[in-house]
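Closing statement on the C2E sub-project.
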Amino acid sequence: AKEDGKGLFRFFTAEMNERTLQRLKIESELRTALRENQFELFYQPQVDVTTGHMVGVEALIRWNHPERGLVFPDAFISIAEECGLIAPIGAWVMTQAFETASRWYKREGNPLTMSINISPRQFIDESLVFTVSKLINSVGFPADRIVLEITEGHLMGSGHDTLAALRSLKLLGVRIAIDDFGTGYSSLAYLRHLPVDIIKIDRQFLNGAATNPIDANIVSAIIDLSHALNLEVLAEGIEHLSQMELLRLKGCDQAQGYLIGKPMALPDLLCWYQTFFKN
Ligand code: C2E
Ligand code: CA
Ligand code: CA
Ligand code: CA
């Protein structure tokens, strides 16, 4: 038994070391990625449920890894958060997203709503408000076309710093969305006092909504709750027409998901937009 315990201990240590090494490797690769411009933003369309028109996009980061190909954020964002690289990556995302929104505005003449994911670490970093204010001043479209997304889970556990940052950002005119809504434990009383504008219903509820009446009721309740609080509501993860029907029936404002469009590189988004909304 003693032998076993030791073996097990060795096994865990070896595995831990391997994971630590793997993290260190990714960390150093992330630095290279920043330096050599290996990141790319993809854009997923968001549509108005009633008219079907595109109202905006969500920017989603991708990593064009020289050996591993296209790497998705779940594989590196948490590592970037742990090693302090989320600040420069987040700043890159922000700059890039603003530039795309600006180019869109010049090209199409109408502003596109650009939603940007913000890590909780970025919210407590004082440079965030400064970066956003600088970018807002450098572009020619209204600040309320920029939406900053913060997950419900992170908002709930957040302290004064995050709330102060949210208030300063609101003063700049940008809008705030609560991402992955329904997965945290927000109370009504709490929501009432948050400086937020949009609620994004987590896709797990939409997933079940077509088959499970409880999930459909939850979606419906979140839509009503959002409207009662005077907030816009967007449903994520729409893959089937039946989900779109449900949203229409329940009066959801906006929708996003593979049924409408997958996240796309900018040239593909322009093509997609051309195909569906021009002539
Ligand atoms: P999220 O903000 O909840 O983004 C939505 C995720 O759902 C995206 O995954 C998107 O590709 C995926 N998705 C969209 N429609 C559908 C659908 O109909 N069905 C299914 N199954 N999935 C759908 P992605 O791009 O892999 O991003 C994962 C997460 O990484 C994001 O979740 C967000 O939390 C984070 N992330 C992405 N870009 C950034 C970024 O620039 N900065 C930060 N801090 N986090 C980011
Ligand atoms: Ca998001
Ligand atoms: Ca989400
Ligand atoms: Ca998420």
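The chain has a mean pLDDT of 91. With this model delivered, the sub-project is considered complete and its resources will be redirected to Aim 3.
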